[in-house]
Design goal:
The protein is an alpha/beta fold and 259 residues long. It contains 13 helices and 7 strands.
């Protein structure tokens, strides 16, 4: 597990450095960081964060989320805020605690809407396009985050790692690592609905989406990309204008050979 002892597990904070490609390279450390909103960080954690040399912070939260808990200013860092939820159909989903505790037919309807959302999130998403342009332009190191650093952030990490040619198992493991960092939160939430779940197990799926991540969500995003474009290369080219030369330059800058 890629734990950074300077940050509490609840922050879901990690460096993408060290993840490996199929051809003997790995992502350089200190370039790509992901995690939760900085408003959740303690003063000590913010002090450590300021030492990382972050050049760009990409906030994937909605304007309402940003207003409720804004990121603190950090000297010398460029802040870019753009709503990662801005996907057609996302406005129809009730992401509130009440919405994520539905049962029966209402839960089935909620889950169907969420599944549709994840089938769309990787396409025409201006937030991810802005983020990838910053990366291609060399605005690194970058810290990208949503509220808890697991869903919108997880897909953002997936896109970056696809562009760098990281192995599929490593991309999957990074996505699912949020469940390890947020294990106690997830377990506590599931325990609170344990009685209801005896007759309505569907509530467990909604709770896991709320406080953790589902492997099948990762699969939904991945398979949707392949169904639409056939290959990840075509996806990166169509959605982010990453042709072969651009991807090669990105890899040259961000990967190192494994000794």
């Amino acid at each position: 597990m890629r734990i950074d002892p300077r940050f509490r597990n609840i922050q879901n904070f990690r460096d993408l450095g060290g993840l490996e490609t199929d051809d003997g390279f790995r992502v350089r450390k200190g370039l790509f960081y992901r995690g939760a909103g900085l408003g959740y960080f303690s003063e000590e954690e913010l002090e450590e964060f300021s030492k990382l040399g972050i050049r760009t912070i990409m906030d994937l939260r909605s304007s309402m989320e940003m207003k409720e808990l804004p990121d603190p200013e950090i000297a010398g860092v460029r802040f870019i805020a753009h709503d990662g939820l801005s996907v057609e159909g996302s406005e129809d989903i009730d992401w509130s605690p009440e919405g994520m505790r539905k049962i029966g037919g209402e839960a089935d309807e909620q889950l169907a809407k969420i599944r549709d959302y994840y089938q769309r999130i990787a396409f025409g998403n201006r937030t991810y396009q802005i983020m990838m342009k910053q990366i291609v332009d060399g605005e690194l190191p970058i810290y990208f985050h949503c509220a808890t650093g697991k869903d919108r952030t997880g897909v953002a990490a997936m896109i970056i790692l696809l562009a760098l040619g990281v192995r599929e198992d490593q991309i999957r493991n990074d996505y699912l690592l949020s469940n390890v960092f947020r294990k106690k939160i997830l377990e506590d939430s599931l325990a609170k609905v344990a009685d209801v779940a005896k007759d309505h197990p569907e509530i467990n799926e909604l709770i896991t989406i709320q406080d953790g991540v589902l492997e099948k969500t990762y699969e939904t995003v991945r398979s949707s990309i392949l169904e639409r474009y056939g290959t990840f290369g075509e996806y990166l080219k169509a959605e982010f204008f990453l042709d072969e030369d651009t991807i090669k330059a990105l890899k040259d800058r961000c990967l190192e050979r494994i000794m």
